[in-house]
Amino acid sequence: MDRYDWLLEALGRGYEEIGLLKEGPRGTIRLIRHQKTGKRFILRRFTGSAEVYEKLLHYTCEHLPQTFEVASRGEEHLVLEEYIQGDTLDLLLKSGPCSPRETRRIARQLCQALWALHALGAVHRDVKPENIILRGQEAVLIDFDAARVYKPERQSDTQVLGTTGFAAPEQYGLSQTDGRADIYAMGILINVMRTGQHPSRKLAPGHLGRVVERCTQVMPQKRYPNVLRLMEAL
Asked: Both 138 and 227 in a single domain?
């Protein structure tokens, strides 16, 4: 029995489904519960690449969900992941923009998550309010289905993935994405947290607005070179 069949059997024997959280062309995300302990987990089933999940297997960072199991069969993958309880940043922003202090706090925590990812050679490529869960005072970056591992020998990404408005220009095939694409998305996110709008419509005032402008430069080399420099700026 291969790992994929083993995980399917284990899930069928020891877990029960609570509900379908998301369904799309690339796969599903379900909330499941271990029958004996009652502990809840996220089960992802998708097609594409599981390279980033494999790198995150048993890796610990307080601002990233823990990955417990990864099993693949061809292009289809199963991932058993920590369930993060809390509200998404998207939901929080429906009640209004964040204060400058709260914006800096959340942004710095997300930079820590991205630093961990980038250190593994991975790029998230889909930093946005819907992919951030606030667990008490902790911001947790989730959903690595669009993430990829940087490959120095390539000129562009193999798949164009990301969210319009947050995705950096290079994600549309102009060049291969690296950590600076996530810095671009962080700039958009910081502006949305402060103003509720994309910086092309309304730029955040003061120092944070200047940070946003540098993050969202069209040319990657004009942005902050890495998330540590962005953290310092914040």
From this structure: yes
